[in-house]
């Protein structure tokens, strides 16, 4: 039987979000209803609200979530009622050409719920990243649920659902940071700081944080940065020279652009050593272009790798990082800057844009 819960929607482009009644239908055969415990305020939700991803309004926002499975469809085998889960937007199909090639991180046919959540008047909602977790409950495919240790703090655990995993994976999975290597991270918001923490976890010897904000750079040091560069007022060449000076004049083994604008992209590209790896995890806007001389692309060797979701596999990675967190080896809880209510999402967007938090987390 369907039920009505409270959820946060973006009704139209750029308009303030609203808390409204959301109809959760009875789950389909492979769907589950999850009672949401926490959901992080991610920049992707702001991008949905502002129409920067697609125009399928109204959106049910929220996707970086943890909760408890409350109801399961008739054919569900992956989870059971009462399981504590982190939600993910990469529920791999196992059948597409990427999955069959052994590259499920590039799955082209990830699973979503078979039914639509709606407003009380029947208007269909588009759930952010197929999840829609700024709500007391949400409907997802069973594959979008990853079981983790229920003893973990939901506010911390849920952050693996998107931004923190994206940054962490950009270093560990995409960048393949090795013991003793050097890493530079451009942009020290939540994703960039997670990349720094990931580089530290992987054993990087030199970790350089680059940002415009001294407060963010101080936080970056807490998460593992060995050096910081405030790029305010510096030219592109001055930033690149500063990175090279910290790496024996060669540049870094791995450079991570965690912003997705061309200024940081170019800094990351030219700051790496010859044959070094560059990772682009910051998401560019729809009109951005990359403009560098072709000879620079050819002549520098190495690789340029986009990181989608940190190239993670939720079933492999989420439980592992929860264990590292609980063992005191990865500071997942330190990414939780504040805990807010469901009605505070719009204020959370403002705080995020001001750069005052790593993550605001809605607790339900």
UniProtKB/TrEMBL annotation:
One of its GO terms (biological process) is formaldehyde catabolic process. Gene3D superfamilies: Medium-chain alcohol dehydrogenases, catalytic domain, NAD(P)-binding Rossmann-like Domain. InterPro entries: ADH-like_C, ADH-like_N, ADH_Zn_CS, ER, GroES-like_sf, MycoS_dep_FDH, NAD(P)-bd_dom_sf. Its EC number is 1.1.1.306. Keywords: Metal-binding, NAD, Oxidoreductase, Zinc. Its cofactor is Zn(2+). GO terms for molecular function: mycothiol-dependent formaldehyde dehydrogenase activity; S-(hydroxymethyl)glutathione dehydrogenase [NAD(P)+] activity; zinc ion binding. SMART domains: PKS_ER. Residues 14-362 form the Enoyl reductase (ER) domain. It is an enzyme of class 1 (oxidoreductase). The keyword NAD applies. GO terms for cellular component: cytosol. NCBIfam families: mycoS_dep_FDH. Belongs to the zinc-containing alcohol dehydrogenase family. This is S-(Hydroxymethyl)mycothiol dehydrogenase. It comes from Corynebacterium lizhenjunii.
């Amino acid at each position: 039987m369907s039920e009505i819960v409270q959820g946060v929607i973006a009704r139209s482009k750029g308009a303030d979000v609203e808390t409204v009644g959301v109809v959760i239908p009875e789950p389909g055969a492979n769907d589950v209803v999850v009672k949401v415990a926490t959901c992080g305020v991610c920049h992707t939700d702001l991008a949905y609200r502002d129409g920067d991803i697609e125009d399928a309004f109204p959106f049910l926002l929220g996707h970086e979530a943890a909760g408890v499975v409350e109801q399961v469809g008739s054919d569900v085998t992956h989870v059971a009622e009462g399981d504590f889960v982190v939600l993910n937007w990469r529920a791999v199909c196992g059948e597409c050409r990427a999955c069959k090639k052994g590259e499920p991180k590039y799955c082209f046919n990830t699973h979503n719920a078979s039914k639509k959540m709606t407003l009380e008047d029947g208007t269909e909602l588009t759930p952010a990243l197929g999840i829609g977790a700024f709500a007391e409950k949400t409907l997802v495919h069973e594959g979008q649920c990853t079981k983790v240790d229920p003893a973990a703090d939901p506010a911390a655990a849920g952050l693996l659902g998107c931004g923190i995993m994206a940054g962490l994976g950009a270093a560990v999975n995409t960048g393949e940071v090795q013991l003793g290597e050097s890493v530079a991270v451009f942009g020290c918001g939540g994703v960039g700081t997670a990349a720094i923490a990931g580089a530290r976890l992987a054993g990087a010897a030199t970790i350089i944080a680059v940002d415009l904000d001294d407060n963010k750079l101080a936080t970056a040091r807490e998460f593992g940065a060995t050096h910081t560069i405030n790029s305010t007022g510096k030219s592109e060449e001055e930033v690149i020279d500063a990175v090279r000076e910290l790496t024996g004049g060669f540049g870094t083994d791995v450079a991570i652009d965690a912003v997705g604008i061309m200024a940081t992209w170019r800094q990351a590209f030219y700051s790496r050593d010859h044959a070094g790896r560059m990772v682009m995890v910051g998401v560019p806007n729809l009109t951005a272009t990359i403009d560098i001389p072709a000879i620079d692309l050819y002549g520098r060797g190495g690789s340029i790798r986009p990181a989608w979701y940190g190239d993670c596999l939720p079933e492999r990675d989420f439980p592992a990082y929860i264990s590292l967190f609980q063992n005191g080896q990865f500071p997942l809880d330190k990414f939780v800057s504040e805990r807010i209510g469901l009605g505070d999402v719009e204020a959370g967007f403002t705080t995020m844009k001001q750069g005052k938090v790593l993550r605001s987390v809605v607790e339900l």
